[in-house]
Each structure stands twice: as C-alpha cells, then as structure tokens.
Design a protein that fits this description.
The structure holds 2 protein chains of 2 kinds. By secondary structure, chain A is an alpha+beta fold. Chain A has helices at 2-9, 48-68, 85-94, 98-128, 132-148, 151-166, 176-191, 196-208, and strands at residues 11-13, 20-22, 31-33, 40-43, 72-76, 79-83, 170-173. In chain A, helix 2 (48-68) packs antiparallel against helix 7, helix 4 packs antiparallel against helix 5 and helix 5 (132-148) packs antiparallel against helix 8. The two termini of chain A are 26 Å apart. In chain B, the strands form 3 sheets. A 3-stranded antiparallel β-sheet of chain B has the order 6-5-7. Classes of the chains: A alpha+beta, B alpha+beta.
Chain lengths: 210, 199
C-alpha cells in the first residue's frame, strides 16, 4: 500500500481536461503546464506561501478600508448618497430582501475574510509547527472559500452600475474606490492564484522539517 | 491519458484510486465524492431547482423603480434591452451574457452531462466535456453581476421622489445562481463520460 501511495504522489490530474500525468521536480521559479491543454498545474516558487501571507495582511487592511468608507458618492437632484458594502447589505435587509442580503453577506464579507484569515492562521500554525490537524482543515476550508469569494465580480458590477447612473446622477469615486481596486488586484494575482497542490506541498514540507 | 482509474481530490488535488463508492482522500482525509448514484441524484435535484428559479427570476421584475409614486418594474431581459436602446452596447452585452446566456449554457451543459451519463448521446465522444465543464465552472459566478448591480442601485438611489428597490426576481435569481453553483459542484468527475479508447 505504501509503495502504491508514494507512486500516487508522483501523479497529478489536470483540473481542466482531466488528463493524468506525472509530476516533475521543477527548477526554482518555473511552472508546470498540462501537456494536453496547457493549463497551469503548479509552480515552484519557494516564497509563494510567504508572499501569500504578506499579501493577505495587505488585503485585510484594504478590505477594512474598502468596506467602511464609501466606494462611490452619488448625487441626484442635490440629494447625496454613498455606497458602502455594509450600507448596501443593510439597505437590502431594511427592504426585507433577506435572501439576497444573506447571500451577499456570504460572498462579499464571510468568504473574503475567510480566505484572508485562513492564510494568516495557516502561517502561524505552520511556523510554530503546531495543530497539524487543524492546519489540514484550514487548507480545505480555504480552497472552498476561494470559490465563493466574489469581490472581483462586485467591482465589475460597480462599473456597470455607474454606466446606468451616468444619465441622471452625478457620480464621483469615494475614498475606498482605490482600496477596492487594489484589493481586487491582490486577490486575483496573489490569493486566488495559489494552487491547492502548492498549499499542500508547503504544508507537508512545513511539518516534516524538524 | 485520460484518468478513469484515478480521481483527483477537489481539496488538495492529490490523486486517489477511483471507485463507484464514497471516496475519502488519502492525503487530506476529506470526502471527495459520494456514492456515484447519490452524486447523480443530488446534481439532478439541484439542477431542477435552479431551472425553476430561473423561470421565476425571468418572469418577475428584478428591479423596481418608483418615480413620483408610480412603480415600474424591469425584468432581466427588459433591463438588457433598455440598455441596448440607450446605446450602451457593451454593458448590454455584458448583462445579457452574464445573466441570460451563462445560466442557460450552464443548464444545457449539466443536463447534457447527466443525460449522457445514463444514455450516451451520439457524437458525444468528440466533445471534451471535462474542458467545457471546467469553463462553465469558472464563468458561473459571473451571473451575480446583475444581482450586484441591482443591490448597488437600490443602495444609492433612494430619495423622496425617485427610489429603486430590488424585485422578487432578484431573490429568485440569486437563489438560482446559488443552486447552479451547488449543482455544478455536485457533479463529480466520474459522471463525465470521457471518450473511450483514446491514447
């Protein structure tokens, strides 16, 4: 069984086209792509996880700014309103749209914060080499949360909403528009970009080193 | 080589030996898949729920505008057409793709996979379903654009004379997106029949 298991560890299945292939030891800084469909399988960046943690702290700060301060300010006929993530969800609940509000809480607040805190907690656990089991659950949780996090889609939606508003309202970007834009960039290029395989190989490495 | 004998864990991407039973990942110990017939019925149930919700979402207004006491509603397609007529073609196309085209594409694909599992459809061997499935999984969440736009408008446009609120359609639509995402997640890779006899 053990021999079989170690053989299985050398294999990887492409997410995109389901092709079975052998893992190779990569030179530092290079990437492995699927032979069939060229989909990125895994990278070998030693610092990938540490960079992920650093950026998760950055994105936590950005997220706090982006969610508290207004993203856009709208004035229609002299009456001013501003858009914040919390304010928007509050309005929905106020108008009895509980289902929409609840799902927006999941995709705009719970999921992004889960991703960020998973990275931070994971970093602490692996550095101290404690609670190996908990770390395992956190990685699984992180992989799931990544799918439900929709801040990037929300940012695009703001642009669409702006187009709808332009005709009859004066719109200006608020303080946290930049924070939100930066958050989306960090999110796409750093947090969502780290593959599950890489997290696991980091996990195994972190706990095997004495 | 396509992998019939092996299955990839969705949590840690490690390779496991495939069977029709419940599989627990040997590396991360998570449950990768249910029994094959359970996966199938879960996917069917969630898909049918999502399709019913999609019909409701399209027949009721997703957005309600109250101007000087008069309320008018906008359905999803109505909203896209209104944008087109105003001349914002790119935005109309985005809304149309995200909220009309993508859900329907997803329904058709999941249906196709589920029907093909029971009874192989002619010519299905030429289509790489795994790849198509992967693509719809990525574009699926983008259907949320419309719900976000409605929520944003409802948050910023409420003053004495003009007020925008979400409509019944918005609730149905957000649930539809939720259930299609769950349905796509319930489809496990074993339900996707690969072309046989490939290299």
């Amino acid at each position: 069984m053990n021999k079989l298991e170690s053989n299985l560890d050398d294999l990887i299945i492409c997410r995109k086209c389901n092709t079975l292939q052998k893992k190779l030891k990569l030179p530092k800084g290079s990437k492995a792509r699927c032979i069939e469909c060229n989909h990125l399988l895994y990278k070998n960046f030693d610092e990938a996880f540490n960079i992920g943690v650093a950026f998760s702290i950055t994105s936590l700060i950005l997220y706090i700014v982006a969610s508290i301060f207004p993203i856009i300010n709208v004035s229609i006929g002299g009456i001013k309103n501003s858009l914040t993530i919390f304010g928007m969800i509050y309005t929905l609940f106020n108008e009895n749209y509980f289902v929409v509000g609840a799902i927006l809480i999941v995709v705009l607040i719970i999921a992004p914060l889960s991703v960020i805190f998973s990275y931070i907690i994971l970093a602490i656990l692996t550095k101290l080499k404690i609670f190996k089991n908990l770390a395992r659950h956190i990685i699984s949780f992180l992989v799931i949360s990544k799918d439900w996090e929709m801040i990037d889609i929300f940012a695009v939606s703001i642009l669409v909403a702006l187009v709808k508003l332009f005709g009859y309202a004066e719109v200006e970007f608020g303080i946290s528009a930049i924070a939100l834009a930066l958050f989306v960039l960090v999110d796409i290029f750093m947090l969502k970009n780290i593959k599950a395989v890489e997290l696991w190989s980091y996990y195994i490495k972190a706990y095997s080193e004495k | 080589m396509k992998s019939d004998k092996y299955i990839s864990c969705k949590y840690c991407e490690s390779v496991n030996i495939n069977s029709k039973d419940i599989i627990y990942c040997r590396n991360c110990k998570n449950k990768i898949v249910q029994k094959e017939e359970h996966s199938l019925s879960t996917a069917w149930a969630l898909l049918i729920t999502a399709m019913i919700l999609y019909i409701i979402a399209n027949s009721y207004p997703i957005l309600e505008i109250t101007k000087f006491g008069q309320t008018s509603g906008n359905t999803i397609i109505g909203g896209a057409i209104a944008l087109w007529e105003e001349g914002s073609y790119p935005i109309a196309i985005i809304i149309f793709l995200a909220s009309v085209f993508v859900p329907i594409l997803k329904f058709i694909l999941i249906l196709y996979i589920l029907i093909n599992y029971k009874k192989p459809i002619k010519g299905s061997k030429k289509i790489d379903q795994a790849k198509l499935y992967h693509i719809t999984e990525i574009i699926g969440p983008w259907s949320m654009v419309d719900v976000f736009v409605v929520s944003i408008l409802a948050a910023v446009v409420h003053m004495g004379s003009v007020k925008i609120t979400a409509g019944i359609g918005a609730t149905a639509f957000v649930l539809m997106v939720f259930f299609t995402m769950l349905s796509a997640m319930a489809i496990d890779i074993r339900l996707i029949k690969e072309p046989k006899g490939g290299d």
